[in-house]
Amino acid sequence: MPSRLSLRWLASLWIALAMIAGGLSVWVWMSSQAAWNAHLDRAYLAGLALHDSLESGSPLPDGLSLMRLREPPQLPHGWRETRITLTGGRPDLAQGARLSMRLQSPDIQYPAAEVQTVGGGSQAAGLASVTRTLARFCSDPRLFVQLEDGPWMRIDGTAVWGCAAAPRDLRLLSAGIAIGALLLLLGWAAEISGAFGTFTAALRDHRARTAALPVGGVDELRQTAEAVNAYVAQDRAALQNRAMVLSGVSHDLGTPATRLRLRSALIEDPKLRAKLERDIDEMTGMIDGVLTYTRAEIGAEPFRQLSLVSLAEAVVADYQDVDLPVRMTETLPRETRARSLFAREAARPAPDSHRLLMRGQPTALRRALSNLIDNALKYGREAEVTADGDADDVWLTVTDRGSVLTKTDLERLTGAFQRGENVGTASGVGLGLAIVSTIAVQHGGRLEFHRTNSGLAARVVLCRRWA
């Protein structure tokens, strides 16, 4: 199996990669911003040099060309034009030679208010601001200038402020690098969190004691899963070993117990013989109860589909065959409400009670119901069994007649080797309700007690689709 990096090393690696990606993103952004500022500065300087050429007749700067027009420039159809006039000296004083400009573009309307004066209020700075504004937007504009009443001149500066002259804008790429690195980092964190969440869900699963937990993820998680699996395996092996020992003891005590029964039959004193037989029954019953409780803890019986009503009827029929006061009470069908698009809400009968299907361990459920019925017969004289359920859970209720146990007593009796104060001379070792509670938990349910007018109702709630 290939070795996996630990969470510490992976976190360190991802933090280092995130820092590298962040530094790269900042460098790309700053480089692109610097190139863009250099492009704007070049256009601004070209505007200053152009003004000097127009005013003094000096050579035009590199990248610019001038063509004199015989007539004022005409605006082509569909184009947009912005007209700007600059005076010499300060812009608020009408003095010096007037410079008129026309900016024509096939797709951009240059608002005069958007042409910011950069570098002062002189006419040269104004023209430089115009050429800088032309470089800010990707277009192929035409610049026409007129000094006082002289001829109009077309300035061709595509090589300076045209789209082809603008540097490549990498700021979007920079943002993409930063966002991509962030998404990768968040994805890795979500993967790690999901692996721990899956492990936690598997650990909370009811099958954690009978099935191995998934081993995967980072090294720390893998080691934790392996340690938990080893612990669960040891715990399960201890339970199985306990059950095996108790089963062996129960089997080995069968022969001496049989000999004791045969020899007790030879005792002439009936009272002494009855006491001895009762002690033998209590001894064998105690061993069988502990063995049953241990097997219920292991829960090795496979789950399968079954009808809870049919199972309860079969258990009740076994008691009725020996004339014990146990009866099955049918649950009254409940009505559900249904609504259609063309009719008002209408009632319809609920499904047949025999369709209380669930996935469970039949032998364990028979044991749980038998224990509840036995308790009801011991302490309440008779037992009434009811099966019911809803879409998620099903439950079996056993109601007795005359039990006087309190809520505190009931909570205590769900523990092992606990018996009620009204037990009297009834046989048992105090494991019946503990077994029922264990079986209920293994089916995703619980054991509940409710006081009724006639006695005590013990209800075992089971999840329909627990395994």
From TrEMBL:
**UniProt entry tagged with the keyword Lipoprotein:** no
Q: Does the keyword Transmembrane apply?
A: yes
* UniProt membrane topology term: Multi-pass membrane protein
User: Which residues span the membrane?
Assistant: 6-30, 172-190
> What keywords are annotated for this sequence in UniProt?
ATP-binding, Cell membrane, Kinase, Membrane, Nucleotide-binding, Transferase, Transmembrane, Transmembrane helix
CDD domains in the cross-refs: HATPase (cd00075), HisKA (cd00082)
| Domain of life where this protein originates | Bacteria
Supply the EC number(s): 2.7.13.3
Molecular function in Gene Ontology: ATP binding; phosphorelay sensor kinase activity
- Record localization: Cell membrane
Q: Which residues form the Histidine kinase domain?
A: 248-462
Q: Tell me the Pfam families matching this sequence.
A: HATPase_c
* Catalytic activity annotation: ATP + protein L-histidine = ADP + protein N-phospho-L-histidine
**Any idea what this protein is called?**
histidine kinase
Q: Which organism is it from?
A: Paracoccus saliphilus
